[in-house]
Prior knowledge:
With 374 residues, the chain is mainly α.
Amino acid sequence: xxxxxxxxxxxxxxxxxxxxxxxxxxxxxxxxxxxxxxxxxxxxxxxxxxxxxxxxxxxxxxxxxxxxxxxxxxxxxxxxxxxxxxxxxxxxxxxxxxxxxxxxxxxxxxxxxxxxxxxxxxxxxxxxxxxxxxxxxxxxxxxxxxxxxxxxxxxxxxxxxxxxxxxxxxxxxxxxxxxxxxxxxxxxxxxxxxxxxxxxxxxxxxxxxxxxxxxxxxxxxxxxxxxxxxxxxxxxxxxxxxxxxxxxxxxxxxxxxxxxxxxxxxxxxxxxxxxxxxxxxxxxxxxxxxxxxxxxxxxxxxxxxxxxxxxxxxxxxxxxxxxxxxxxxxxxxxxxxxxxxxxxxxxxxxxxxxxxxxxxxxxxxxxxxxxxxx
Length: 374
């Protein structure tokens, strides 16, 4: 707190004022800067959302379609004994006032299309990503520019909130080869049984959980099923993290479908209790990174590629050399091919190559075919 603020408080409250009142005012000022930042962010959001247009299929309806911003905000937080509750409540009321004053969206895609909650846990993770986790988050922001458009496009085509893409940021940091302690694999961190249930193949040479497009389509189907059961995007995220059967048991035991209430009662694993706040924190920072101190990160170009057929025996390293690209870049495009080559006993497989390189791929395949016949 600044010297001015301390002096002001001393004069305003006086030396005999109750200490709890003094702490309350100090805490209010402590959160004023963050409060101003969030309000500024929302001003930017609503200005942008008024200009953003989207088209949804006429015969299908998104769970968030047609909702005004005020309708997707979560319920006010339950009162608790935290010292900074009053400042959080003030922020909540001011945010909801901003939302209610915003014009209704005319079929447009909201810039925030998941419910927004700001509380102590979200605040903690925002602060963490600005300090101890800043290098990680900067890397995630760089990759987000590259991979988010593709993920959000597929989510939109499935009439799902595009902000669900931030689950990938928290799950894997957009790393196709990420593997968890529970053997969950790929950008969406599918365990093998769930991946197979939603059509993702995994064998000795191929693991489609690592493919961004295929795993996003599988995740879209899985998320739609979770939403049908739980009816809450926070519970969808929680069940995605801990498993739907475990969450189902806790909901039945505690007779509530309120994620924050389940967290307050300690009904969820710590990782799951942190999972939703992490997503919300990442979403808020990533939508206005400069406001949170992220100014100098590299902005990678959006991922672009073409698909073509390659015969068994095609080696990705050799193909990369022929195309003049790095081995890693081509392997990342085809992360599902875990061996780095298509086995000879496989007749053919569809691969992803840099945009505009299909003629060179055809040339490479022809050369290889002729050399084998000699």
